[in-house]
Structure formats: structure tokens, C-alpha cells
Amino acid sequence: MKRLDRLYMGTNTKMYKTISDTTAFLSRLNQLTADIPADCLELFVIPSYTALESASRTAAGGRIRVGAQNMGWEDEGQFTGEISPVMLQEIGVNLAMIGHSERRHVFGETDREEEKKVAKALASGFTALLCIGETAQDKAYGLSDETLRTQLKIGLHSITREQAANLWIAYEPVWAIGVNGVPADEHYADERHRVIKDTLSELFGPETGPDIPVLYGGSVNPENAPLLIQMPHIDGLFIGRSAWDADRFNAIIRTVLPLFGSRKNAASPLSDSCKSQKEEIR
């Protein structure tokens, strides 16, 4: 089964939700989505660091994958405030988000630093979720595509074709993120996804590049999620506050899953389990 035959859905809770909030959220979400086959849906949650160990225990044996919001590029050392892959592996975490716009624009992380983190994550057996996106100024000057290509070419410079099998990309335009973010039009988002996929094919070849999941994130909500997921180059949704209530997140998943299934089925047959799930959701 190809990676892109399933829908990718996830959320990053940023610096919200306490440990008890997070475990309650995960328990409820796991209960609500337990009937959806794993070959139809890749579901992940990226909570705050203090909640990671409890979240990992809560999610163990279930269908939700738990990830870290950041990760250092060394196993140990004089890096106050950083968390190493060894520490994350010890608590059962093997998914790391790297290069979120707040890490780049609030904390000043560079493309070169993101490359070191991606390389370390993949070398350590993690799935690396690299976040990229243009600023409002980039967009105003017509530099969106150049910005995305630069972030990919530097951020993935040392990554091999074999390592790319564990790579995910999240496209999150900086101007679309946060409380005051403005969602990207689905056609604009899809065109940026096309550029990203073309660049990934350039970097990793025509077989590996197109099979790397590219998710859209940036003010995704119940209204625009169905429009976004029907676009041909969007493989999933990376949702913010609209997903922080388990029942609401489940509702979004069940709205977009059959739409995604219809889109994919037009290109290639779905698995029997996904076909039956699609009918049940309808």
C-alpha cells in the first residue's frame, strides 16, 4: 500500500493543554476514531513537552500517533532547553515536528538548523514532519514559490532518497497561522502543494518524491476543510485550534475522509476496508 492511499490528519496543541487536558483529549479522540481502519487514516497529535510521556502512555496500543513539537540535533550535550531523540525514544515517541513557523519566526531558527534536526530525526529512526511556509511579505512580492523551494532545498539538503521514506511535509503559510490568521484559498494552497511536490520529485526522484505526504495547515476549520481536501495535491490537514476539541476534530475527520476517498478512488482503487468505511460514514 502506498503512503498516499491514506488520509493524514493531525494537530499541534502548541503551548496549550495541561497534562490532564491532553490525556483526556487523546482518550476521547481514540475512542471516537477507533472504528476507522489504519490503512484509511494516519492520525497524529503533537502536544506540549510536559504532556508527552503521559500522552505516549495514553496513546499506546491505540491508533493515534504522538509526536514532539521540536527536537535537538544531538543525542546529548550542552544544549540547555533542548530535548534529544534519545530522550524522546525513551518515552515511546518517534515523530518529531521540525521548523514550525513559530520556531523560525519567534525563536529565530534557520533553514540550516532545520536541516540538522531533520537529518538527526531520520538518522535516529523518527518520522520527521518538516514545516515550511512563506510570510505575508514573501507572498506580496511574489516570492512564495521561491521561499518554499529554498526551505525544502536547504532543509532537506543532506537527506537521502531512502531516508525520505520517513519524511512528511506540512505547508503552513505564516500569514494563515494563529488567532489572526487568514486561511489560504484552496486553489492557492493546492498550487503551493504542487510546487512542493515538484521540488520533492526534483530532490528525491520521480518515484520517491511524489510519495512524500504534504499536508496543509493554516486556519483549517470545519468550513474550509472539505474544500481543501478535494484538491489534487493536498494529502492531509494539519489543524490548529479547530481540532483541540476531540468531538469537533472527529467531526472534521468524518467529513473529509469520504471526500478524500472519492478523490483517491478516482485515481486508484481503495482498499476494501476503506471502501466499507466510506460507505459507513456516508
From TrEMBL:
It is found in: Cytoplasm. The keyword Cytoplasm applies. It holds the Pfam family TIM. This is Triosephosphate isomerase. One of its GO terms (biological process) is gluconeogenesis. One of its GO terms (molecular function) is triose-phosphate isomerase activity. It catalyses: D-glyceraldehyde 3-phosphate = dihydroxyacetone phosphate. Homodimer. The keyword Kinase does not apply. Belongs to the triosephosphate isomerase family. It comes from [Clostridium] asparagiforme DSM 15981. It comes from the Bacteria. It is an enzyme of class 5 (isomerase). One of its GO terms (cellular component) is cytosol. Transmembrane segments: none annotated. Pathway: Carbohydrate biosynthesis; gluconeogenesis; Carbohydrate degradation; glycolysis; D-glyceraldehyde 3-phosphate from glycerone phosphate: step 1/1. CDD domains: TIM. Keywords: Cytoplasm, Gluconeogenesis, Glycolysis, Isomerase. InterPro entries: Aldolase_TIM (IPR013785), TIM_sf (IPR035990), Triosephosphate_isomerase (IPR000652), Triosephosphate_isomerase_AS (IPR020861). Its EC number is 5.3.1.1.
